[in-house]
Amino acid sequence: MAESGAPTRGVDDVDAVTRAVLTASRLLVAVSARSLGEVEERVTLPQFRMLVVLATRGATKLVALAELLQVAPSTAMRMVDRLIAAGLADRQANPGNRRETLLQLTDEGRRTVEDVTARRRAEIGTIVERLAPEQRSALIDALTAFNDAGGELPVGALELHPLGWADAVPDGRS
After folding, report:
1. Which helix (H) or strand (E) holds 124?
2. Whole-number Å distance between alpha carbons of 148 and 21
3. What DSSP letter does each residue of 86-114 carry, written as one string?
4. Rg of the chain over CA atoms, in angstroms?
5. Are the CB atoms for 167 and 161 separated by under 8 Å?
6. How far apart are CA 100 and CA 104, in angstroms?
7. CA torsion sign, 53 to 58 to 64 to 65?
8. Could you read off the pLDDT of 77-130 as tens digits, one per residue?
9. Distance CA 122, CA 129 (A)
10. Rounded to an integer, what distance in angstroms lies between the CA atom of residue 106 and that of residue 113?
11. Most buried residue among 22, 35, 94, 126 by CB atoms closer than 10 A?
């Protein structure tokens, strides 16, 4: 224990970092849930994840969508059916291969992603504004390293849309 009563932490304290990341993830999940507040009767969090993938990737085959969401194709199909029934997504024949079906957002689905993302961005912005400039800089460095370690594409490798969602730039990693 340090003199202040706080436990001392070594530079390599994996448990302390893990606890801090878990706490931050709890905050981000709460922000995400609140951002869905206006659409929660129509869209669950997993369904919203699917909408974001479709907004990010564009028209996508069901199998690819299931892989991106790490769910079984049958689960993805049930989610798609619900989104289609809600008017947020639709199916179309793949112009390159008529035997394949592509899934895509409707205009209403796109507006839903944009609205929820705008609410999420605003709330996160409010939290970030409470940090001192040096804390913001440290957070950028820490989150960049964390994202790299987790294999998440850096924002620099993405083409951002005005409201914060992104399309992968063709580089073979999409």
Report:
1. helix 107-129
2. 15
3. TTSEEEEEETTEEEEEEEEE-HHHHHHHH
4. 19
5. yes
6. 13
7. positive
8. 999 999 999 999 999 988 888 888 899 999 999 999 999 999 999 999 999 999
9. 10
10. 11
11. 35
The CA distance from 51 to 57, in Å, is: 10
For residues 28 and 36, the answer to whether their CB atoms sit within 8 Å is no
- Check if the beta carbon of residue 60 is closer than 8 Å to that of residue 103: yes
- Secondary structure (3-state) at 152: coil
Residues 6+ apart with CB under 8 A from 28: 124
With beta carbons less than 8 A apart as the criterion, state whether 150 and 142 touch. no
pLDDT tens profile 37-48: 888 788 888 899
Strands 158-160 and 166-168: antiparallel
Of 26, 56, 41, the residue nearest 117 (C-alpha): 56
Encoding tokens for residue 47? 């369904």
Give pLDDT tens digits for 78-87.
999 999 999 9
The residue among 120, 122, 96 whose CA lies nearest residue 33 is 120
Is 60's pLDDT higher than 70? Answer: yes
Find, among 102, 88, 100, the residue nearest to 52 by Cα. Answer: 88
* Token pair for 15: 């448990």
Give residues with Cβ within 8 angstroms of 83, minimum separation 6. 43, 47, 50, 51, 89, 109
